[in-house]
Write a structure and sequence with these properties.
Low-confidence stretches: 343-348, 389-393
CATH superfamily of the largest domain: Histidine kinase-like ATPase, C-terminal domain
CATH architecture of the largest domain: 2-Layer Sandwich
Helix content: 25-40%
Strand content: 15-25%
Length: 393
């Protein structure tokens, strides 16, 4: 529920009130007047911000100034999400901490725990979607907030540590290697059966088809990870070609009808007009494939996932629908890197990669709607043609 604390300032979560420039300057002077506090902050290897009771930065260590001050704007008076380029920091007039998605932000929660007296220290993880290019449009941070009192006034020291490499390792261990081993195990089992003598010819043919399908999945998993790493580093190049929207939908549907997640579930292609577009077919197939895979995992046995496309002027919209509904806490984090609805830390880069590939490389936009009675539909809207034959952003 949106709360309005004062005229013109509304919030979904933390207080929207902001300190004035004079109040920030006074707080900065108070911190600077304590040489022990400033020396300790500068000695910390993490990025360290000191925030006031309105979560605005009043001091920062040298590491934070170097990392966050590159845009030429002053750090003081701004909130942490505004400094790192969080997508949600500009959604509400009052800025960082007040958008609907901020309810799931570990950084905001850690600050509030200290400011509201819940605990003297708080440690959280923050998954932040950003506007940045160098970070792949996402940050994974370990956040530690600690109360400090100077001249009778309470501040919060916020230490931020980049844990993206740890999250990447967890994804490789828990998702990529898990899926790869499952597929490779299936290949091994089938090959053992094929080596046995006196197999029925019809059964042998069926086993060979399964072997081919599983081999495709192994190759696809490897290519998917390689493509994602290239996209995050900015090294992905597009190979644009002309093709029909119906062709790519049929390819994705056929691939996931044979995939293990499609067992006892149906992928239905809504009869669309054959729309001609010019973009990277492989990247688009990856985007739609990730959405179909997620939709199948959210669909009960015997259910169906529907895919389709429609013209929108000089744009084309692809959509993927499943009958399930995502809880609100999932909806606000769905495109964050390392967030997953599956159990186990570090799982889930599917929707994150969809956003990264669509918005940074295919020049499009991805969105979704999830409502009781209507299910969940993801939409990918793309230009009919990308001007540059090779795109790199």
């Amino acid at each position: 529920m949106v709360v309005e604390n004062e005229p013109g300032l509304a919030t979904w979560f933390a207080s929207p009130q902001r300190s004035s420039a004079a109040e920030v300057a006074a707080a900065e002077a108070l911190v600077a007047a304590n040489p022990l506090a400033t020396a300790l902050i500068d000695a910390m290897p993490e990025l360290v911000l000191v925030v006031d009771d309105n979560r605005q930065v009043v001091a920062a260590n040298r590491a934070a100034v170097r990392a966050l001050g590159a845009d030429g704007e002053p750090l003081l008076g701004r909130r942490p999400g505004e400094l790192v380029g969080c997508l949600h920091a500009t959604e509400m007039h009052a800025g960082c901490g007040t958008a609907k998605a901020c309810q799931a932000c570990g950084a905001v929660d850690a600050m509030l725990c200290c400011l509201l007296g819940v605990a003297p220290t708080a440690e959280r993880e923050a998954r932040i979607m950003t506007t940045g290019a160098a970070d792949g449009g996402a940050l994974d941070l370990a956040v530690k907030a600690s109360n400090i009192t100077l001249s009778g006034r309470r501040f919060v020291i916020l230490a931020l540590r980049d844990i993206a490499s740890e999250k990447r390792r967890q994804v490789l261990e828990r998702t990529f290697f898990h899926d790869l081993l499952n597929s490779a195990g299936g290949v091994f089992t089938i090959s053992e059966v094929l080596l046995a003598e006196d197999e029925d010819p019809a059964f042998e043919h069926e086993l060979k088809e399964d072997l081919h399908r599983l081999s495709e999945q192994v190759i696809d998993e490897i290519r998917s990870q390689r493509q994602l790493l290239a996209a995050e580093s900015g090294d992905l190049r597009l190979d644009c070609e002309a093709f029909s929207s119906n062709d790519v939908l049929q390819e994705v549907a056929a691939a996931y009808r044979r995939h293990q997640v499609g067992h006892d579930r149906e992928v239905v292609v809504d009869p669309p007009p054959a729309l001609l577009l010019v973009t990277d077919r492989t990247v688009l197939r990856r985007v739609l494939g990730n959405l179909v895979k997620n939709a199948l995992e959210a669909t009960p046995m015997g259910g169906s996932v529907t895919v389709g496309a429609r013209a929108e002027g000089d744009l084309v919209e692809f959509w993927v629908h499943n009958p399930g509904v995502m809880p609100e806490e999932v909806q606000v984090q769905i495109f964050a890197r390392s967030f997953s609805t599956k159990p186990g830390a570090g799982r889930g880069v599917g929707t994150y990669s969809v956003r990264l590939l669509t918005e940074r490389y295919l020049r499009g936009k991805v969105s979704f709607r999830s409502e009781v009675g209507r299910g969940t539909v993801f939409r990918v809207v793309l230009p009919v043609a990308i001007d540059e034959p090779l795109a790199r952003r």
